[in-house]
Each structure stands twice: as structure tokens, then as C-alpha cells.
Design a protein that fits this description.
Layout (H helix, E strand, L loop, with lengths): L8 H11 L3 E5 L2 E5 L6 E7 L2 E4 L2 H6 L4 H9 L7 H6 L5 H8 L2 H11 L4 H18 L2 E2 L3
Parallel strand pairs: 4-5
Antiparallel strand pairs: 1-2, 2-3, 3-4
């Protein structure tokens, strides 16, 4: 089964994980990604057009979860925007998602609070999603 594209915010969440140094590359296509609150460690494998991660988005919602995107960024298979990454350091993603309840509201808050140019961030998200779509990742068996 092909994994669906993620919500747009997940690209920024992945970039934040890379900026925070929460992505540990274990080997080709294998990573551990620590959650923004530090209470969870996601295990990721991406190889041969297949991807696996134990995050909720991938497991329960069937989309490419942010740990997979973060792993691909850390390996250089997806682009990293250093300036945007710097502005996303230390974002408490889960807390913001719980506070605002909708991804669009979280994005609005982050863009305003972190003085991020929305148009430039959206272009970056578009680029990452396009490249991710070209990978056509299938869900790997558990």
C-alpha cells in the first residue's frame, strides 16, 4: 500500500527535528527520531521504495510521517533549508497541536511567533512534497 502525502506541517516538523539534532542516522535508510518533547523515540527504515516508522501518522493514518521525512532530510535525500531550520529550533510541536487543535492554526502561530516568511516556507514545503511524491513510498511490512 502506498503511503499518502503528509499534512504540510509535517515537513516543518521534520525540519525542526533535524535542526534540533533529534535525528540519529543508524545506517543507510535507518534512523531514530526523538519527539519534540523528548518522551518518544521513533524508529524509521526507508529502503527500496518502502518506508516504515512507528509514529502515529504513518501507522494509523497511512501518510508519510514526519520521522520518515526527517530521516530522508538527515541523509540528504530531501533538501534542508538552513535558515528556516534555524527558526524552527525548539518548537514544541505536540503541545502546539494540542493547544490549537488544527494544523493550519499551528502554522499561523509558528509563522508569526518565529517571524517566518510564509511564502518562502510554503515554497520549501512544496519542493519537499514534490520530491517526496516522486519517491512513491510504499508502506513496509512491520
Amino acid at each position: 500500500m502506498r503511503l499518502r502525502p503528509p499534512p504540510r506541517i509535517k515537513v516543518l516538523e521534520a525540519l525542526g527535528a533535524v535542526a534540533d539534532g533529534r535525528v540519529k542516522v543508524l545506517g543507510p535508510g535507518r534512523c531514530e527520531v526523538v519527539s519534540s518533547e523528548g518522551d518518544r523515540v521513533y524508529r524509521v527504515e526507508v529502503a527500496g521504495g518502502r518506508a516504515r516508522s512507528d509514529d502515529n501518522g504513518t501507522v494509523y493514518r497511512g501518510y508519510v510521517g514526519y520521522p520518515i521525512i526527517a530521516c530522508l532530510m538527515a541523509e540528504g535525500r530531501l533538501p534542508v533549508d538552513p535558515g528556516l531550520a534555524e527558526r524552527l529550533r525548539g518548537v514544541a510541536w505536540r503541545r502546539l497541536n494540542e493547544r490549537f487543535g488544527r494544523y493550519e492554526e499551528v502554522l499561523r502561530h509558528i509563522y508569526a511567533e518565529r517571524a517566518i516568511d510564509r511564502a518562502s516556507a510554503e515554497r520549501y514545503i512544496d519542493e519537499v512534497l514534490k520530491l517526496l511524491g516522486e519517491m512513491r513510498l510504499e508502506r513496509a511490512a512491520p
